[in-house]
Amino acid sequence: MYFRSSFQAAPPSPKQAVFPLADLARFGDRLAFTTDSYVVDPLFFPGGDIGTLAVSGTVNDLAVSGAKPLFLSCGMVIEEGLAVDVLRRVAASMQRVAIEAGVSIVTGDTKVVERGCADKLFINTAGVGVVPPGVNISARRAQPGDVVIVNGFLGDHGAAILVARKQLALQSDIASDGAPLASLVDAMLGACKDIHCMRDATRGGVATVLNEFAASSGVAIRIQENALPIREEVKGACEILGLDPLYLANEGKLLAIVPAHAASSVLAAMHAHPAGTRAAVIGEVIAQPAGIVVLHTVFGGQRIVDMLTGEQLPRIC
């Protein structure tokens, strides 16, 4: 399984791809490398499938480090008896998203296991990218006075999976938000190269990412409930099941912490991009209490937003 974008590696062989270092150095002098595995159930759901998740998720893990994503690998574990048409659909989705993201899938592998030893299809993707000079994005860089920005509606992916599993007897148009965000990050860095922190809010949602930022930077983060962009359908699904949308998984949403003076220019760049039209400032970084995330509620009170322990929904991505 090999898909090409505009950036070319050497012709792939089954087990490895060879990259010309001189070409990589045109983008920067630091490599970014990531890997993730995808076990979502069901394989197909409103707004995407396991293939779109695999490519988008790995591209986004690279992009939020400030890297330009370039190359991906793909490994598949296939349960005996899986229909070939399912593989074709998944491969087509991966090709489409790879082209959209401007990356090449340059090497891969498949393994088939006996019926009952896996659940239909598992995918692992690894990605390589290059970090441009002057970009220094880290969970340790949040500073008091910074603002917190999200690029759109929260919790759509988690809610879409719930509906697809028929855990909710709802007629709903909620679709997964899965999408590659590399071009959005490029636009944000074009507006402000000094973005302090950035992370895609996947498993554990917004709450988990903000807690990681607060703990790593030794600061507090205060968010405003009335500023959180959450669809009414997602709120309703969470109320029925007793879930908190702040912990729902997202597959096309990122959180960025930027200096206050750059917030308006970063927001303007995001609003001009299809993946950021609903971008909003949802909070700010403060000094104390260090390591804590605080939510100011619509009723005028406040509560601590803890790190998620365990997992709200298994096999969400």
Automatic annotation (TrEMBL):
<dbReference type="GO" id="GO:0051604">
    <property type="term" value="P:protein maturation"/>
</dbReference>
<dbReference type="InterPro" id="IPR036676">
    <property type="entry name" value="PurM-like_C_sf"/>
</dbReference>
<dbReference type="InterPro" id="IPR036921">
    <property type="entry name" value="PurM-like_N_sf"/>
</dbReference>
<comment type="similarity">
    <text>Belongs to the HypE family.</text>
</comment>
<dbReference type="InterPro" id="IPR010918">
    <property type="entry name" value="PurM-like_C_dom"/>
</dbReference>
<feature type="domain" description="PurM-like C-terminal">
    <location>
        <begin position="143"/>
        <end position="294"/>
    </location>
</feature>
<dbReference type="Pfam" id="PF00586">
    <property type="entry name" value="AIRS"/>
</dbReference>
<protein>
    <submittedName>
        <fullName>[NiFe] hydrogenase metallocenter assembly protein HypE</fullName>
    </submittedName>
</protein>
<dbReference type="InterPro" id="IPR016188">
    <property type="entry name" value="PurM-like_N"/>
</dbReference>
<dbReference type="Pfam" id="PF02769">
    <property type="entry name" value="AIRS_C"/>
</dbReference>
<feature type="domain" description="PurM-like N-terminal">
    <location>
        <begin position="28"/>
        <end position="131"/>
    </location>
</feature>
<dbReference type="InterPro" id="IPR011854">
    <property type="entry name" value="HypE"/>
</dbReference>
